[in-house]
Each structure stands twice: as C-alpha cells, then as structure tokens.
Amino acid sequence: MGIVNILGKKEILMPGNPSCPGCGLALGLRYALKALGENTILIVPACCTSIVLGPYPKSSVGVPVFNIAFAAAASTAAGMSEALDLMGRDDINVVVWAGDGGTVDIGIQALSGAAERNNNIIYICYDNEAYMNTGIQRSGSTPRHAWTTTTVLGKKEPKKFLPLIVASHNVPYVATASIAYPQDFIQKLKKASSIKGFKYIHLHTPCPPGWRFPSDKTVEVARLAVLTGVWILFEIENGRLRLTGPSRNLVDKRKRLPIEKYISIQGRFKHISKEELEKIKEDVDKLWHTLIQYSSKENIEKQ
Amino acid sequence: MGLVEIRWHGRGGQGVVTSAEMLVSAAIYEGKYAIAIPFFGAERRGAPVVAYNRISDTPIRTRCPILNPDYVVLLDERLGRMIDVVRGLKSDGVLVVNSKSVPEWVDRKDIRIATVDATSISMSLGLELAGIVIVNMPMLGALIKVSNIVSLNSLTKAIKAKWKGERMKQNLEAVTRAYNETVIW
Amino acid sequence: MKEVLMPIAYPTKGSVGNTGLWRTLKPVINYEKCTKCFICWMYCPEAAILAEDKPVILYDFCKGCGICANECPVKAINMIKEV
Amino acid sequence: MPVMPLSGNHAAAYAAKLSRVEVVAAYPITPQTQIVEKLAEFIEKGELKAKFIRVESEHSAMAACIGAAAVGARAFTATSSQGLLYMSEMLWWAAGARLPIVMGIVTRALAPPWSIWSDHIDVLSQRDTGWIIAFAENAQEVLDLIIQGFKISENDRVLLPLIVAWDAFDVSHTIEPVDVPNQNVVDEFLPKRRKYRHTLDVENPFSYGNLAYPKDYMEFRYSIYDSMLRAKDVIEQCAAEYDRLTGRYSGGLIENYLCDDADIVAIAMGSISGDLKVVVDKLRKQGVKVGFCRIRYFRPFPSEALAKCIEDAKTILVFDRDISFGSEGALCLEVRATVNREGLDKRVYGIIYGIGGREVRQKDLENIIVKAYKEELNHPRKLLWLNLKHV
After folding, report:
1. CA angle at residue C54 from C50 to C60, to 5 degrees?
2. For chain D, what is the radius of gyration of the CA atoms?
C-alpha cells in the first residue's frame, strides 16, 4: 500500500468523465488534484480538459473550476489570487490547468505577464504536443517531424521549450514532470504549493489518438520519453536547476535508451527518414546541452 | 457676473492646464460655476497648447470650444508671432501676455493689453521643471488682477488645497507678485 | 425567469454516464498472480480502480484502455473481449 | 459633500474609491490612463484598500477582473478604443459568467488612421456583449453613474457587468466642479458586495461554465435577455434611491428635456447633450417647439421611455457619434426600431457628427434643428454627415 499512501486514496477527479480511454492528461489531472487537495481552485482555458470537466450541469471534478477563454488563463488566475489574498484566503491553491496550445501559443502573453508580476499561482501546462481538442493540429509545442493534421509531412520546426522561457522571468519555481513518474510530479506540486509567487510545472502527457499509439501504451510512451532523454525531468528553484527522477542518471548519453524506442512506438513519427531521425536526436542533445549549462557545476558533479 | 470665457495659449510643460484647473477650483470657493477644457492634442512638451475656461454664476452646460473669448492669456509671448492668438477675442476684450512690454505683433486696436514679466518672476522663485520655466501661476495672478473673475483670496485657498510646503509658498508668491506687478496698458 | 440562470455544474461521478459501456476490452485481475503493488491503481487515468485490500476495478466506469494490464509488473491483468 | 474640481477621469477614480473596489486591473491607453493612475495612487497611499494588478494587456485586464469577481471581489477597470476591442472577447465572458464588474470607457475613435479623439464606435461595437451600457454627460454623472453602476450590476436579479462611457477630452480631461458624496452616504447606498450562488468557494465546489449542449445553452442567453429587461426597473430604482441619499437625481434610463409638447425632438448621448440643451433653450425662446431626449442607457435600450418621450413629436433628429458601415448610426437604428415597434408615425432623420473628435458648434446644431423644423432636410433615407469636409 506504499504507493497508495504516497498518492492518497481520495479521488477528486471522478470516474465516468468524458476523457478518451488511456488519456494522459486525465491521469495527470488525477495526480495534480491528489497532491493539491480540496483547497484548490482550477482555472481551465479552452483545451481537452474543457470537455473532460463534464457537460453542464455535471462536473467531473470535486474542486471549484472556472472555465475561461483560451488566452486568459494566467490573468484570470492572477485576478483570483489577488482577490483571495485581499480576503485573507492564502490557504487556497489557485491553479491554472492548461494545454500546450493555451500555454506556449495563445496564452503566452498572459502567462508571461503573470510570471513577471510573480502572481501567486501554480501554472500547470499539460503538454500533449498539439491542439488535440480541435483534432490534432500542430502547436508551438509539437516536436520536430511529428505528424499532425496541419503538418501532414511532419513539423519542420523544433519544439518551443517553454520551461526555460518561464524561468527567464526569475520566478521562484519551474519544473518539468511526466505522468509516468507520479511521485516526482506530486513532490513538485507539493513544493510549488508551499512557495509563494509564480510556480510553473510543465507536464508531459502523451495522447493515444493524437500521437497514434494504442490506449494501453500511454504510460509506457511517457516513460520512454524520459528514459530516452527526449523529456527531461528537472526543477529550477530560485534560479538553480536540478535534474530529478531518472533524468539524474541520464546526463551521460550512453545511459539513455535509444531514441528509436520512443519514436517507433508512435504513429505520428512513422513517416520519418533517417536524416529526420538524426535531426530529432540533435534537438534532444541540444536541449540536454542547454540544461547542463543552465545547472550549476557543483550540481552536475554531484550527479 | 454673466458668462466669462477665457482662452489660454502656451507651450506643453508651462502649466496651461493646471492654471485652467486652479481657476475652476477658486471659482468653487466663491460658489460660482466653472469649467476648464484642455484642448488635447497629441503634442509633446514644448509644442503649442490651448485650454479654455468658462466661469459663470449659473451652471455651465456648454462644452464646445470658445470662439469669442473675453480674455486671452498668453504664456509665451513668442507664440504670438506664429499664431493668431487674439483671433475671435471680443472687442474690448483683454490680452494678458507674459512680456515686459506690449508685443510689437499686436495689431488690434479694439482690445486692451495687460503685461507681466512672468518668466522673471518664476525664474526668481525657481519654478522650473526639466528646462521649462513654469509661468502658469504668475499668469493666473495677472488674469485675476485684470478680470476680477475670482478674488486673490479664493485663488490662495485653491493653491493651498493643491500644494503643500515649499511649492505652495512659491506658487503663492508668484501669484501675488504678478498680481501686484501686472501693467494694464 | 425568477432567478438568474448560471452555468453551475456540480461534481458527479459518471458525469457522462456509465463510461464502462465505451469498452471493447475488459481488464480482469487474476488475484492469484496479483501482488497488491497497486501500480494498476496508480496508473488508471479514470480513477476506476479502487485501492481496497486489493485492487478492485469499477466496471461501470472502466473504459478498457488497458494501461493497467500493460503496466502490471507481474502480468496479472488480462484484457478480454466484452461479450 | 465637498465640491471638488475634477476631470471626468478623476471623477471616475473617486467613484471607484467611494465604491470601495477591491481589485483594479488595468492597462494604460490614452485618454483613459489618468483614471487608473489616480486609483493606483489611492491604493499605494493606503486611501483605498484594494489590489492593483498592472496587467500586460486589456484582454488580461478584463480576465483579471473576471477572476477577482468570480471569487467575490468588487472589480473595476477602464479602457478606450483599441484597448476595448482587444478586450472584447472577455466582455462576452464577463456577461456570460454573470459577474458584476464595472468598467469605465473613455470613448475614442478607432485606427487607422490613428486618432485619440472621441467618438462612440468603440463602445457601440460592444453593443451585444450583454453589458449594461451607460453614457455620461459630464464629470458629475461619471461619478454618479459608476457608483450606481455597482449597485445595478450587483443586483441579484440583474448580475450583469456594466459600462459607464464618457467622451474623450470633452469629459475625460475637462475639469468641472463635482459634488463628491461622503463615504458614509455611498456606503449606505452601496453595501459590501455579497456572495452569490455562483461565487467560487472551496467549501462548495462546482465547475462554472462547463460545456452546455444545445438542450441547455439557449436558456442562459434567454436569462441574460430577461435580466436586461429587468435592469430597466433596477436602473430607475437606483437613480431614485441615489437621489434620496445624495439629493441629486443623476441617473435613470433617459433624460426628457422639454419633450412633452415638442414638435421636434433631438436625441443624442454623451457630452454633446449640454450644448443641445442650450440650443433647445435658445430656440424655445424663438418659439420653436423643440425638445431634447438624452439616452443615458443604451443597453438595455429604453424603448418604452423613449416612445413616451417622443409620443407627440412629428420629427425626430438622431445625433449619432458613430456609424454602422453599410447602414446608419447605431442610435438611429434603435430609435427607428422603437418608432416602428410602438407603431408611431414620425419622420426620423439620422445625423452623424463628431467622428474622431470633429468639432461641432452650437450654431451647427441650431441650424440643423431649424432646417428640420422648416421641413427643409433631405429625405430621411439620406444620412446627414455634420461638418463633413467636401469630399
């Protein structure tokens, strides 16, 4: 029962909601609500979760949720957190739960504003790497060469990596997480909840219909993303980057699983050529390089 | 007192809008009605600016621009060489100008002229900001001297309500000195 | 209307009904093999597995995604066809 | 109650302060900026206990107000022109979410070409958002309508956000004596904002605004329509109560200025109203039976009150400081609809004036009324653009 105690039995995301079978974001939301508890208000912009929340007059979550326009999540949350602070309610987590489109594309202005003002909110971006709610169109967060309905030959540009952009706002806490590593994610959420100011967590949430893999492989795909080094787990606290979870042991490239293992399991990459695969590998190496440079030397040596 | 209409000409930064505002403030102390309408252009500091005042014993509903003022107050004498500052000034109306003497460009015989060396007064009191001498207070003193639309006492009250400390003293001194030094030609 | 109508939605289990009907494959736990590690419970995106003294699947809501079967370290869960 | 020399914009800031707003979120734009500068000053000096959120856009300004209002705070913002259009999406959200927010709009023309001067197109483009929309004539009314605005907006049978609009420079920067009510008077008129059924609360969780299928959606829109109709009574009641407490009647759906026996009635909104009243007085002295009807609330549109006001007039002149391209002025369209709906027999002339701050003199207003009186105007189908340069 170790895991059960760590995660907690209470289910705030309720079964019988409209998520797709094997939905990565639903799993992420279930963890997030377990970690943050009932003193939480969710702000949800247009995204898959707008549907997962359930049709009026029923809701699939047991905390207050405010639906808001696509570009407005962070600013709405800022207004809420300031108002709650004025009312003396500093015990409530004001949490944005937004997809990658609503975060890295249309929502980035409001996100940047709230981050710069250091508004007291937790912003969680669940990244399924495309506009899934509208039917798999590419977003700024879609990785290079991935098929989407608007990049039928694969996306030409690399993934816009938002965590470091947010970190450039000098916010107190930025982290990445994966649904394959719930303990790591939950720890980060609890830490974020204890810090005052702007907290950002970027959660990798594979999507079976969008990434073209069977619904039972969601966690496996998420795990392979981490073990191949494609998705890197870290946290940046007061400007110091620290690798977390399995990523701690993957600074040495040779310790990572081959990227092919991650790529070949997903239909969205099935068209790619050898050269394109090499380009994807380059992108991964580049990100590792950037992150290693970002972390302090002693930090890396310790690992 | 019937309706009195005033047009102010100056340069951005000289305090035209503030003087128009102070006149409203002073009028309120006398139970009069007044309105200050700054004509707001997109211009920056140093560019010519215009503001209007209407003062009356009865409520003022009109807000369209003043075409035939009773008084024209000119904060920068040199502006008179560029634009027709006395345009529409009523016959027997008064041009109040920041100058030591009657400017040579005044070509109307049917108007009266009052002058005050506001620049010297303000400079001697250190009323300067970012390289521009703020002459609005002495010009206000000159205007009420020639017009009597509000009393020096009411204007003093208005100044005391708006500023404190050294700035208030400087402004009061500027108004009073100009009030006493204004020459009506 | 007597009152202002507000789009308020209250928490409800089965907000879209019994999603168990969506299922084509059904996970069945072989409790003889089950080590009660609760990894299936942990990874269920639907919260359709209860953590009792052993994991219990809520078939009313399980959509049959199969993650539990895929993640079970001892392969104690079989996906079988719904009849 | 002290009389203070205030610009329209500063009157708005005092109104928000007297209304004890709790959250202000705003972005600078000419000619609105002094409102929020003054509010920021009140807050920083501790004269107003509120949060000022210095947002990065107008879209976020309204979003922040929505967030604050959703958890029960009294929220205020202000904007103009392009800022209002950028915010537009969130206006629909605020109304749909039934959140009582009050916003000041300093009316300003839209670009291109750039213009910072007044017309009403910015506000009227937001006509159908579900916001109550009021136009103030002067700084006093800016103050009075904002304070009343919170009361109207927060009425639990209304629960719709509310705009008070006033004209750039003509009101926003013009300084006038404004009778500022004492705080205790305003407190009595406008108690602390209450908690509603839809105020978010962790003790009573619900999702707000979830997907509504066609079987459910339409009723929400009907409810807004229904509340707008009810707002008409609430607006009148609030004006009466405000009058009782302050001794000043400064509100209500319309202003009837000498319309009752008029043959010809001019209709307009905003700052031109004072000049129109002066012109009416002048023409009355000359024996012209003219009246002026000011539309104070454009939404809900006061059809019934207007119909009564113009009942006996033969000719109606509608002064629009806006143009709906391909049709005519928005106010004129409303007046025609009212005339038609009430089965009245009138000639209605549409006049477009003051676009982008174009100067209008009393003489211009007088000439056009006299022309109409002498039945010398062109056919009502021909829209008249006042002081248009020869093009």
Report:
1. 35
2. 21
- Touch between chain A and chain C (3+ CB pairs, < 8 Å)? yes
Question: Which residues of chain D are at the B interface, by a Cβ-Cβ cutoff of 8 Å?
Answer: 3-5, 31, 116-117, 138, 168-171, 173-177, 271, 273-275, 277-278, 359-362
What's the DSSP call for residue D379?
-
Q: Please state which CATH number belongs to domain D254-385.
A: 3.40.50.920
Angle at CA B110, nearest 5°, toward B109 and B116?
A: 75
Amino acid identity of C44?
A: C
- Which residues from chain D sit within 8 angstroms of residue B62, using beta carbons? 274-275, 278, 362
Q: Is A282 on the interface with C (CB under 8 A)?
A: no
Average pLDDT, chain D: 97
Overall average pLDDT of the A123-149 stretch: 97
Q: What is the reported pLDDT for B43? A: 65
Peptide bond into D31 cis (omega under 30): yes
DSSP A104: I
Q: Do domains D3-246 and D254-385 have the same CATH topology?
A: yes
pLDDT at A298: 53
So what's the pLDDT on residue A270?
Answer: 95
Q: Residue B129: what pLDDT?
A: 87
Average pLDDT, chain C: 96
Q: Is residue C3 part of a domain?
A: no
Residue owning tokens 């016959």 = B91
Total tally of structural domains belonging to chain A: 1
Residue A50 has its nearest CB partner, among D201, D211, D213, at: D211
pLDDT (0 to 100) of residue C2: 85
Find, in chain C, the residue whose alpha carbon is nearest to that of A22.
C65
- CATH code of C55's domain: 3.30.70.20
Contacts of D159 in chain C (CB under 8 A): 4
Name the neighbours of B, counting chains with at least 3 Cβ pairs within 8 A.
D
Q: Taking 60 as the threshold, does the pLDDT of residue A301 lie above it?
A: no
pLDDT of A14 higher than 70: yes
Rounded Cα–Cα distance for residues B132 and B167 (Å) = 16
Do the two chains C and B touch, given a threshold of 8 Å on CB pairs and at least 3 pairs? Answer: no
Where are the domains positioned within chain D?
Answer: 3-246, 254-385
Q: Of C1, C4, C9, which is closest to D207 when you measure between CB atoms?
A: C9
Distance between CA D33 and CA D9 in Å, rounded?
Answer: 8
Q: What is the pTM of this model?
A: 0.96
Does residue C51 fall inside a structural domain?
yes
pLDDT(D1) > 80:
no
Task: Break chain A down into helix, strand, coil percent, rounded to 5.
Answer: 45, 15, 40
- Please check whether residue D231 is in contact with residue C29, taking contact to mean a CB–CB distance below 8 angstroms: no
Q: What is the pLDDT of residue B173?
A: 97
Q: Does ipTM top 0.85?
A: yes
Shortest Cα–Cα distance, D181 to chain C (Å): 32
What's the pLDDT band for A300 if we cut at 50, 70, 90?
Answer: low
> How many domains does chain C divide into?
1
Residues near B157 by Cβ (< 8 Å), separated by ≥ 6? B26, B29
Identify the domain containing residue C35 by its residue range: 25-81
Distance CA D342, CA D316 (A): 15
Picking from B33, B36, B65, the nearest residue to D175 by CB comes out as B36
Concatenate the DSSP letters of all residues of C13-70 into one string: TTTTS-GGGG-SEEEEE-TTT-----HHHHH-TT--EEESSSEEE-TTT-----HHHH
Beta bridge partners of A234: A243
Nearest chain B CA: its distance from D19 CA (Å): 24
CATH code, residues D3-246: 3.40.50.970
A126: part of which helix (H) or strand (E)? Answer: strand A121-127
What is the dotted CATH code of the domain comprising B4-184? 3.40.920.10
Mean pLDDT over residues B74-101, rounded?
95
In the beta sheet, which residues pair with residue D66? none
The H-or-E segment that residue A297 falls in is helix A297-302
**Nearest chain C CA: its distance from D138 CA (Å):** 33
